[in-house]
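Q: Got a minute? One more chain.
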Amino acid sequence: MTALYAEGEENTEREQYTPEEAVRHAEIIVKVERRAAAERQGTRTDLQPSAKFAEGSPASLPPHERQSRARTAKAVGMSHRTLTKATKVVKTAEDETAPRPVREAAREAAAEMNRSGKVDPARPGVDDGTIEHPYGLVWRVA
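A: Always. Here it is, folded:
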């Protein structure tokens, strides 16, 4: 897991991920985080030496960085909120159950995100779950 975080940090030092690359790398980190959390589930932590003060342990981080979502976003060079927005656009673009115009609008938004490197201007309507089509139609995205 540490290697995935290091890879993300190394890549963001060299060159920023495009938003879509960040989403892809974050998906890998989330899978590993979930697997690690499942392994920890049900274990007794009172029998092990306290990791509270161990350098790099989640407990030694500031409160806002203790959550895996914050660590994941930091590893790809984004805030959690921005990563969530980018993920929504990328997932909508790939969702075969979404109406075709919605997927097309999301694909255009994803392409614009990757071109500009900015998530917010490329995704009008994603926050409130709607995507507007050039013909004035509005679809509700779950």
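A: The chain has two domains: 2-80, 88-140.
Q: Perfect, thanks.
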